[in-house]
Each structure stands twice: as C-alpha cells, then as structure tokens.
C-alpha cells in the first residue's frame, strides 16, 4: 500500500520535516513526498473542461502528475504551514484543481491525515487542519485524526527557524508520529 505526503509549503522546511516524522511510523509501506514548491500551478479557472471530458485537466502545468500520484495512493498526508490562519495559497490552488478528481470520485475511500505548522502557539493550526480535512471530506476520503495518545485533529506544530535549521516543538513532533501511526492502523484494517 502506498502513502503520499504533500508538502504545501513554498519551501522544504518544517512542514516537510513533520511529514517525514509521520512517515517514520509507516515503515513497510511504499512512501513518497512531493513538495508543491517544485511545481508552478495555475488556478482552477472554472473552464469546466474536466466535467465534460471525464476528469482531465486541460491546463498542462504538472498538475496531472500530482493528480496521478494522488490516484495511486491509498493514503495521503497533507501538510501546510499556517498562512494567516489557513493553508497556503498554493495548497488551496491544488485543492481547487483537484476538482478533476471528483468527476469520477478518484479519491473516495482513500485515507487522509493533516499536518499544520505555524510560528506561534494558537497561530491558526486547528483551523488550517480543518481546511485540509474539509477538502478530504468533500472528496469522500476517510479522514483520520492523530488518535491516541495525542488525539485531536491531526499534527499541530510550532516551528522556529534558527539560521537554516528548524526547531519543532515536542508536541508537534509527537502528533506527527501519532498521525503516522493512525494511518498505519487504518491501512492495516483496510488490508484485512
Ligand atoms: C505569509 C505568511 C503568513 C503566516 N501566517 C502565520 C499565522 O497566521 N500563524 C502562524 O502561527 N504562523 C504564520 N506564519 C509562519 C509559518 O506558518 C511558519 O514559519 C511555518 O513553520 C512555515 O512552514 P515551512 O517551514 O514548512 O515553510 C506565516 C508565514 C508566512 C510566510
């Protein structure tokens, strides 16, 4: 079974580190992380072509590559830095473009977990997690929390950048591991 991590940050920083932390609990699964900063995604301009042609986006900018990876995954961990209390514009753009995947319900029954990291405590991590989980629910995905022992809405972390290093709070790292563990548990249940 395959788990895809999507790093919604504009750089390879604390969000990426937290996805990697969650992946530590997913040994034995095929894993891949993509960073949206490696793509330049256009907005969905509601041309509705995907609605008419069976779910293919006519904008050729690398989106179809991401869509294909999402289709092939059994679980997706979506991570975003908190930007003004919500997800990054780039991640929201991916969410909007993923309308193509709703034409045939390609993401239905895939497992989804969320990661949010901000520079401050109470900086909007919970709202950011809710935005990610709402996207997953609208696709008919199976949403998971970080479950026990931390058990809230996913991984919620605070990161501080010191030169080129990122210091991530212990709670954030712990919730990342709990999320990875929960994804493993649910995938194993599905395998049975
Ligand atoms: C435009 C912008 C808006 C931000 N807004 C918030 C915010 O509302 N709350 C918060 O805690 N941190 C905020 N931050 C800080 C980032 O969420 C934080 O530095 C995060 O760790 C960056 O993740 P990355 O290292 O994966 O890029 C903001 C940063 C930027 C650039």
TrEMBL record:
InterPro entries: Flavoprotein-like_sf, FMN_Rdtase-like_dom, ISF_SsuE-like. Pfam families: FMN_red. GO terms for molecular function: oxidoreductase activity. Residues 1-147 form the NADPH-dependent FMN reductase-like domain. It comes from the Bacteria. Keywords: Flavoprotein, FMN. This is Multimeric flavodoxin WrbA. It comes from Balnearium lithotrophicum. The lineage of its organism: Bacteria, Pseudomonadati, Aquificota, Aquificia, Desulfurobacteriales.
């Amino acid at each position: 079974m395959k788990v895809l991590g999507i790093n919604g940050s504009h750089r390879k920083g604390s969000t990426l580190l937290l996805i990697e932390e969650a992946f530590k609990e997913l040994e034995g699964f095929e894993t891949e992380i993509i960073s949206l900063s490696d793509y330049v995604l256009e907005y969905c301009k509601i041309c509705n072509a995907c609605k008419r042609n069976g779910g293919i986006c006519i904008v050729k900018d690398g989106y179809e590559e991401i869509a294909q990876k999402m289709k092939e995954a059994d679980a997706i961990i979506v991570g975003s830095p908190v930007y003004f209390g919500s997800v990054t514009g780039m991640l929201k753009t991916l969410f909007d473009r993923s309308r193509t995947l709703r034409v045939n319900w390609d993401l239905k029954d895939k497992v989804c977990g969320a990661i949010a990291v901000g520079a401050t405590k109470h900086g909007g991590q919970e709202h950011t997690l809710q935005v990610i989980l709402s996207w997953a629910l609208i696709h008919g995905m199976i949403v998971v929390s970080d479950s026990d022992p931390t058990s809230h809405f996913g991984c919620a972390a605070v990161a501080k950048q010191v030169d080129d290093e990122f210091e991530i709070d212990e709670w954030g790292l712990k919730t990342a591991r709990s999320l990875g563990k929960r994804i493993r548990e649910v995938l194993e249940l599905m395998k049975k």
